[in-house]
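Margin note from the TA: students keep mixing up input and output lines. Inputs are the sequences; the output is the structure of the whole complex. Example:
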Amino acid sequence: MSSNFSFYDKPGFIWLDGQFLPWKDSKLHVLTHALHYGSAVYEGCRAYNGRVFKLNEHIQRLHKSAEFLGYKIPYSVKILNQATKKLLFKNNLQEAYVRPIAWYDVDSLSLGAKAEQVHVAIAAWVWKSYFKLDDKFEKGLKLTWADWVRPAPNMSPYQAKAAGLYVISTLSKRSAEQKEFNDALMLDYRGYIAECTGANVFFVKNGDLHTPIPDCFLNGITRQTIIEIAKKMSINVIERYIKPEEVNDMDEMFLTGTAAEITPVTQIGETKVPIGPISKKIAKAYEILVRNCPCPEK
Ligand SMILES: Cc1ncc(COP(=O)(O)O)c(C=O)c1O
């Protein structure tokens, strides 16, 4: 079956189960379990100067996500790390977004159908600015409040990057964009601030960093990196429950994520927030780290 979407017909290769296939030939069956029930797990990584930042951590998380969903990825972390590096080389990519994804074949469409054969694909392409901002430190992001909330920990396997969990993110993001906001800030099931649709959130208040406790949403690799960076800079990091009305008293706010990187927020609903020096300092340190990180070969 052919498609007219140029996203499905790019030059270059996609790694699929050990082979480098031409981009347009990496296809799967319409009865794939993940297409119906959201059982794929995936990662989002970024390469800087030809090297993927924290590749090993991302591929380990891919393996863990599959375990949360009850299946095992048949390629070791080492093999997938090597495949990613070869893919970047083969596609001649230095600055790229990398998307590994795993799913499985079944012999029926029963919800509980056993994973008969697990597949992995890795695609990489240039995806410069996730938020389509020319200069993110000039304008910052406009956020609205999401209509959907992050469910309780016993309502979804929230530590997994599983395709099915992203339905409330895609609905919230699309609705925000339709209202001419860049993204939506999601509350959790208790009414505390959780995260954005695909990024974690930090606030600055009186020189300290405040960030929600990730007990019902993804504890992002970038979030963890920013906490380490802040501690090295002797910036106090406070992980706590944050009420939505507190945004009115915050000095700065920014989002963190592999795709989003460090992006300042200048508006949430009606509340305006300035772009401040701590966000800029942390973003600068992150940029230096991702571009110089020795990231040992594993
Ligand atoms: C829902 C959600 N939260 C947070 C993040 C940030 O995670 P990371 O920093 O590991 O990219 C992402 C991005 O993958 C995400 O999809």
